[in-house]
Amino acid sequence: MSPLSAADAAPARRRLYLVDASVYVFRAWHSMPNEFHDADGWPTNAVHGFARFLLELVERDRPAHIVVAFDEALDSCFRNRLYPAYKANREAAPDELRRQFAHCKALCRALGLTVLAHADYEADDLIGSALHAARGHGFDGVIVSADKDLSQLLGEHDEQWDFARGLRWGAVGVPARHGVRADQIADYLALTGDAVDNIPGVPGIGAKSAALLLGHFGTLDALLARVDEVPYLSSLRGAARCAQQLRANREQALLCRELATIALNAPCDGDAPYARGEADAAALARLVDDLRFGPLTRRRLHAACGLEFLPARSTTA
User: Fold this and answer.
1) Domain that holds residue 228
2) How far is Cα 216 from Cα 199, in angstroms, rounded to an integer?
3) Is 7 contained in some domain?
4) Count helices and strands in the chain by DSSP H and E runs
5) What is the CATH number of the domain that holds 240?
6) Which residue stretches of 32-169 are H helix?
7) 148: left (phi over 0), alpha (psi -120 to 50) or beta
8) CA dihedral sign, ordered 100, 17, 169, 191
9) Residue 237 lies in a domain
10) What CATH number is given to the structural domain containing 58?
11) What's the total number of domains in the chain?
């Protein structure tokens, strides 16, 4: 028998799945029909859609280590203290949706998944901090989200997964998607701004100019230190104007980078590397009854936890 090759003999790398839950809750809220209601008559369409997403993820990859991060810092994030206008363009979530977020967290906990949420830190920060802690235990990350901001966390062996589109990429795939390296994402957003988060950036510098500047100078710090060289970049359209804007908006650019940089020191519940725990059968039974899950979803939830399936007492879905 021939000896194993080095690749065959190498142990499989251990992976921590980090789920950006809010993306999938909001997607379900907007896409699922408003025909699902709980025992008290409140809508549950977002919970039903999120449960289906979570089941597909668990059934497909069977992650042994997983965290699910939720946004609670809607207007209390540390970034709001740095820049009060941060995310000020977003409308507050209605009570019907807030209630469903609570149900989604309860569902995750009943399934034995670690839930991360904090009033001062956003889901991105919790994902970054959990991944940073897990790396100390020899884990790589699988970030389940299409959010470009999260690409800045990708290390050599990490992966980002746009679950809805079935697309996966690592750090080497970031330039093709965003025009800059993974480690340049925060600097890139400092220059271009981010309309979604109401980060202004540097006026007059768009995506192509930002990518070209970072491709030449490497970092925002180097760009600002060598701003006198910018007017001589023949490949940069309006180079003199760009240099003028960079000089005039230096402090704003640095602030925007601080806003765009994901924190790696947020307090996270649970212990890295966040092994999946045992399901809480009693809590799961209460939830599926209260939320009126249909028999198929009930069966899948119980199977995902290795629990015996109990038929619903009364369901509408």
Assistant:
1) 178-260
2) 24
3) no
4) 14, 6
5) 1.10.150.20
6) 45-61, 78-82, 95-110, 123-135
7) alpha
8) positive
9) yes
10) 3.40.50.1010
11) 2
| Residue in 105, 46, 43, 38 with CA at minimum distance from that of residue 72 | 105
Task: Tell whether 221 and 167 lie within a shared domain.
Answer: no
Global pTM reads 0.92
Other CB atoms closer than 10 Å to residue 37's CB: what's the count? 15
pLDDT in tens, the chain (317 residues): 444 444 444 457 799 999 999 999 999 999 988 888 988 899 999 999 999 999 999 999 999 999 999 998 667 899 999 999 999 888 888 888 999 999 999 999 999 999 999 999 999 999 999 999 999 999 999 999 999 999 999 999 999 999 999 999 999 999 999 999 999 999 999 999 999 999 999 999 999 999 999 999 999 999 999 999 999 999 999 999 999 999 999 999 999 999 999 999 999 988 999 999 999 999 999 999 999 998 999 999 988 887 765 555 544 44
Residue at 159 is within a domain: yes
- Residue 187 shares a structural domain with residue 249: yes
